[in-house]
User: Fold this.
Amino acid sequence: MKMLVKVSLAIIVISTCNCFNISKMSTKTSSIPGSGMDKPGISFFGWSNGGSYSITICQDERCCTTGKLNTEDNNWEVGQVDWFVGSQIEECSYFSLNTESPVLLTLQHKGANAGLLEWIKIHSWHSAFDFLCVVEERLDYSSKHVTNCELQETDHWKSSKEFGCNGRLEFCDLRFDQFLFPGTHNSGTGQSEGVYKCAYKNQDLNIVEQLEFGIRFFDIDVIYSTTFGCSGLETGHGSHPEIGLYQCYGRMDALLRQMKKWLDQHPSEVVALNFGNIDWPEETIPSLMETLIEEFSLQDGVRINKAFKATGSWPTLGEAVKSNERLFIFLRDSIGAVTENELEIVKEIKVKPGHDVASKNLTEFEASITTSYKAGDVGSDCSFVLRSNADACKSENQTETDFLKLSFFSKFGKGGAIGTECVHKMARKCNQWVKQAVDQCNYRNFKPNFLLVDYPNYQALAEQNIVQLCQAVNMERANMVIKNTEGVMDKVVEDDMSTNMREQEDQI
Assistant:
């Protein structure tokens, strides 16, 4: 006997408003040879040697314009998908569209280098629906193409009209340690421009733009300092701050408030923060802990999840959503500040591939995380990073840590002929291999747990970006949980029937 079992513990129902705010756009350059463009390098009296695009979106006599679409490494390669998020689409960011009215898109080309796009998509913060605008026309010099955009809705959205947990109702049944979180490395470096971006900057999206893109795991470097441009507790990046090789990108309290505001506005979303690289820990860790508690535990709205340290087990995403404890905090504590009494903060125990977990002397209040990161030359195909991830997957299968984190980056000085390849160029190479690494990391059902990349909006030639990939993997995991639950219920029903039959026989 088969029984349908509904195991979702929380359902987020959104307004029936037929509108959404634009948060990002994606473009697909045609795979036909000659469709790509180089971005302009020389401009002279209105002429430029490369090519660029801008977009105008109109609906009901209202219009917005993106300005020239551009990122750190936007070269419109043949067959490549490019993403433009938040401030990168200028006045079109948060431009409101009604899903029941026609949308008209104008693609404007400039420059001597012709290009051909297959399509442009207009997205909101979620993946439930978007607008598809077909182009398929080669543009050159100052030519333009006007096209109507068609609304595309997922089957899930058509049937439920609900976001559930992190995008799907089915995800509500996954425990936190069963979910695959799309994440960013040095997430705070997108908070400001900084200097020496080629070497120090790992993100060109700020924390809200990353949330809008779909990132749900944030790896944040932090320091407490009043030197080299810092003003207290800040997110930063660098090494050896004692000799000035460090850069701050913004105050942590401002970052956390921006995240809290976004989470309060999006009550279906579950997020994790990981504070691993903490410089000057004696001053930084106490300040960080105090700031986290002040922003998320002493204020109304979304709170930090305390279930693991309070109960010894990880909650489902549905339980986190229902309780509004939708933020999980991991902190690599080197000074003994995190004790069993701070229920909001879980001490992270870092485990490198090949190392023994038993020697770490974990307590029941700590979480072990195997990390694949290892700095090395990424080469032309990112093979070093792929090998590091493969080694971590094999090692974690033997040590069985609480979580497995795969990293798809190296560091400045480890790319290019003489080590001067920019971080964003390495990201373009490595991000397209994430799916292959995840597919091959198949030793255990619910591993890996966290995927970390630089510049997640640099999809390159991959069919999916990191957010879309995690959605697909989590759907497989949710189906596995549902199937297992149905199997358990079948066994319960069979046992109940057998018991009833025995009782009837005894009565006879």
